[in-house]
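Quick one:
INPUT:
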């Protein structure tokens, strides 16, 4: 069995702030947060005056038990690294409504507001302030094209 874990790379040393934001939107559980140590951070190409105290070398959090990793995007050695879109398959309408309301209240950009789709799902898509695109999907009815 292979376990796939999304790994979010947040630019501008904002991963720790993103964790706090995600607590408000998704009620995440932070399993671990590890800041950069100055010596190793400098070796990875970070500047001497980096905000070490608020940095994130690696973090792990869960949304309803699903694991996601996240770190500050250092830009060192990973020029091909791109941010990703995360799709959350949500098990009930109440929860998708809650996530959308939370995203709205945090000022996230709604790319598509919550609506019933032709594929029988309730769906919404947002961009958070950290450059990550979030898709929320609650499959209410089966879809057979």
């Amino acid at each position: 069995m292979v376990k796939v874990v999304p790994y979010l790379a947040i630019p501008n040393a904002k991963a720790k702030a993103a964790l706090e934001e995600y607590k408000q939107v998704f009620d995440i559980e932070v399993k671990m947060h590890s800041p950069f140590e100055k010596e190793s951070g400098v070796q990875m190409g970070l500047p001497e005056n980096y905000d070490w105290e608020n940095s994130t070398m690696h973090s792990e959090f869960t949304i309803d038990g699903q694991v996601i990793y996240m770190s500050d995007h250092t830009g060192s050695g990973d020029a091909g690294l791109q941010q990703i879109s995360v799709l959350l398959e949500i098990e009930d309408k109440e929860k998708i409504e809650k996530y959308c309301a939370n995203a709205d209240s945090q000022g996230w950009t709604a790319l598509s507001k919550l609506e019933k789709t032709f594929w029988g799902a309730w769906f919404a898509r947002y961009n958070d302030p950290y450059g990550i695109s979030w898709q929320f999907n609650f499959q209410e009815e089966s879809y057979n094209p």
